[in-house]
Amino acid sequence: EGKRLGGRAPVAFGALIEEGVRNALVLERALRTALAARPEEFSVAYQPILGIDGRFRRAEALARWTSAEHGEVPPDRFIALAEKAGLVIDLGRIILGRVRDDLAADAGLRVSVNISSLQLLAPDFIADLVADLRARSIDPARIQVELTESVLVRDPAQAARHLHELRAAGFGVALDDFGTGYSSVAYLDQLSFDTLKIDRSFVSEVRHSPKRHALLRTMIQMAHGLDLEVVCEGVESEDDLRLLAELGCDLVQGFHLGRPMPVSELSALRLTASDRAAA
Ligand code: C2E
Ligand code: MG
Ligand code: MG
Ligand code: MG
Fold first, then answer.
1. Residues lining ligand 3 (ion), CB within 5 A?
2. Partners of 51 in the beta sheet?
3. What is the pTM of this model?
4. pLDDT in tens, 227-279
5. How far is the CA of 62 from the centre of ligand 3 (A)?
6. What's the Cα-to-Cα distance from 205 to each of 7, 188, 208, 225, rounded to whole Å?
7. What are the distances in angstroms from CA 40 to CA 82, 198, 259?
8. What single-letter DSSP state applies at residue 191?
């Protein structure tokens, strides 16, 4: 691509930027419309998280958007867009509503959900969520909230209070995507996480790098020293799984163990997984 632009780069680049901005605006308008008037365009896919013993533990709820005009839009794209456009609270409300309904329909289901920092720091977020769950008799302990470091970087003191409030209400709390970004170890002893999720980019590089291997081992030991359960993301092969078992990883998640899927398929997989673990 870059080479083809060659000598005419300045002109072509300018045109590309313009097109990019226009596309982002068009997509933002579609997102706004869908959130306001077509909530059925959004759905939740669940990806299984298994114990290293193969037992089903919970499923990560992942937002999906199938736009009438744009088709499947990748989550990284529309979530970033929603955050920029001030729409992430509305989006989160739809996703959490679906998750709540799925939890109400299946008493054996436990989930983790991704919450963006803007959601967490919204004044009534936790109180509203707790009230909503109580109205349906859903125990908050069935939900683990996944947060990324951005929430801690933005306002550490405020984040600490909200985390504490989540824990007090009975939710599990995981630090997501550990091993990317700042990964400030300093936060870990002050904040009340119970789970550390090691980012998949980190896990995939372990196969090729002895240093990464040593780092991953150390990260897992550190997490255990802090009484945190460790989830390794991005398990794509039997080799990955064996390696992570050796390193003492507690929970695993990845395409090798299950792709994100509709809730109906998840119940079938849960049964097979527990059969396999029992055998
Ligand atoms: P995440 O929370 O780190 O979620 C894991 C992502 O890794 C998912 O991407 C999942 O499909 C992908 N993944 C899982 N196993 C593998 C594997 O073995 N190989 C590879 N290559 N990928 C794997 P997805 O669904 O595209 O979501 C991307 C990100 O979007 C999530 O990363 C999360 O940060 C965000 N996200 C998704 N749903 C929500 C939501 O409801 N709210 C918020 N705030 N963010 C969300
Ligand atoms: Mg996550
Ligand atoms: Mg992650
Ligand atoms: Mg991620």
1. 176-177
2. 251
3. 0.92
4. 999 999 999 999 999 999 999 999 999 999 999 999 999 988 887 766 666 66
5. 11
6. 36, 24, 6, 24
7. 17, 32, 22
8. S
